[in-house]
């Protein structure tokens, strides 16, 4: 595993540990969003829009495209959790399906269980 990959995995593991989440099982994302205090709205939208997150003071909001497959919704939730809780100086981000940036490697460690 490359050095950068290890750093990303360590950050994701720290986030999970701080919340009392294990690294061996998948996450109940709806329960996690409630625990984190994220107001989350699921709404069917155009297929090229995955979701968005907004952070204003102590208020946290997430919009997820419910027209997409559940697996894609879960990945988007993980992506937006990264923005809300790990990315520094974050306040707003809209994400289009399939057009995520390089930070997605960190997201995979947040929401996916290591399979190998």
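^ Assign residues to that structure.
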């Amino acid at each position: 595993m490359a050095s950068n990959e290890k750093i990303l995995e360590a950050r994701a593991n720290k986030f999970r540990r701080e919340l009392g989440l294990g690294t061996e099982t998948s996450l109940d994302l709806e329960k996690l969003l409630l625990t984190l205090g994220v107001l989350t709205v699921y709404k069917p939208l155009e297929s090229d829009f995955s979701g968005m997150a907004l952070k204003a003071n102590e208020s946290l909001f997430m919009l997820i495209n419910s027209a997409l497959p559940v697996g894609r919704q879960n990945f988007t939730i993980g992506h937006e959790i990264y923005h809300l809780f790990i990315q520094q100086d974050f306040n707003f981000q809209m994400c289009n399906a399939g057009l995520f940036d390089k930070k997605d490697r960190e997201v995979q460690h947040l929401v996916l269980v290591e399979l190998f």
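The helical segments are 3-18, 29-36, 70-85, 104-111.
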